[in-house]
Amino acid sequence: MQTNQETPSALERRIDMSVPMAEIDKEVESRLKRMARTVKMPGFRPGKVPMKIVAQTYGAQARSEAIGAAVEKVFGETVREQNLRVAGYPRIEPKEVAGSEALEFSAVFEVYPEVVPGDLSEQQIERPVLNVGDAEVDKTIDVLRKQRTTFQVAERAAAEGDRVVIDFAGRKDGELFDGGQANDFPFVIGAGSMLKDFEAAVTGLKAGESKTFDMTFPEDYHAKHLAGQTVQFEVTVKAVEAPVLPEVDADFAKALGVADGDVAKLREEVKGNLEREVKRRIQAKVKEQVMDALLAVTPIEVPKALVEAESRQLADNARRDLEMRGMKSQDIPVEPAWFAEQAVRRVKLGLIMAELVKGQELHAKPEQIRALVEEMAQSYEDPSELVRWYYAQPERLAQAEAVVIEDNVVGWVVDQAKATDKPVAFDELMGNAA
């Protein structure tokens, strides 16, 4: 075996290798002998087929397998000898050398980059701070009430928050346009399902009243034939219904899973769930800053093979998500190239975090994994059942282990950086800010 290494770029390697043909011929002969012991052919007993016939029938297969095994063996030995960390799979390029008594080929591949985490001492990280109190619980219960809103007929003009049932017809240049008419169409004023100008025109009308008005569609309206166009609508209100929120009483508590209808117990459960959600969102905001900091101080080049693999994985995930939403596979135009930028970020962070875990001993401890699983289980009716489910299969537990490792890295980075606490408003953290 002979080898010669070239370095075309920072991460790409080309190794020229050769294997004596005598070795390959010997391996072919060995494989054919093994085949001859069990091969079956009409007219011969098993194991009694003449070697010449076995060679004629299976010679090409045996040679292909022998060459593949030889290439794999010499490549594996070479990368181990040179202590190379191969990223992805090598591309094997045969070389034609006249009169050569050896099989000569080149293996082209990428290696993992050397990762040296940078200095984090000047990186700024803000930790959101929010204590969950009665006001936050009240706001959350109000959201739960609104989710269970019912409507009753109102003998008055339509107002913000009301549900109206209408007939409407839209005309452009005097002609009805596609999608511009409906009967018995319900919508809630202010919910955002209709354009604001349309809602404004309906507001103030009573059941039985009609109105004709002009309206201009936004320039970026999704229906291109209507974008920026002025049309005329005729609307007839058939019903006005006022919203009715449920009282916070025993029935409301039972509807939310509190069997005995104890409102105080409901508030305790809401507060517990809210505290877990607030903690999760704060961790997510800190994590995002940590990841940005790691990328800022540790510039690295990443192997194309890893980026391509990650892009394919992200595309597959997106495809599965769309399928779960009811779309058919053939109707889902998802391409790995769309995820290239995200894939580069994920690969970089994966390499940097792996180096930190190894260098700073940030591996997940069994007690940390257990604590995380038990915390996640608290939002379930029977927490012990979820804990058993996680510990029933190593694959599930590995997911929790990955989260703990990530948390360990985040905690370590926060300790190294300039971290400051910053109070945050409840609506801002929960994404409810206007």
The chain-level structural class is alpha+beta
What integer value in Å does the Rg equal?
A: 34 Å
Total number of beta strands: 11
- Helix percent reads 40-55%
What is the succession of H and E elements?
A: EEHHEEEHEEEHEEHHHHHHHEH
Question: What count of structural domains?
Answer: 3
| Main pleated-sheet profile | 5 strands, antiparallel
Q: Assign the CATH superfamily of the largest domain.
A: Trigger factor, C-terminal domain
CATH architecture of the largest domain: Orthogonal Bundle
Number of helices: 12
Query: What does the oligomeric state look like here?
Result: single chain
Strand percent estimate: 15-25%
Q: On the 0-100 scale, what is the average pLDDT?
A: 91
Q: CATH topology of the largest domain, which one? A: Trigger factor, domain 2
Which class of the largest domain in CATH terms?
Mainly Alpha
Question: Which regions have little confidence, pLDDT < 50, spanning 5+ residues?
Answer: none
- Cα separation of the termini: 70 Å
Describe the global form.
elongated
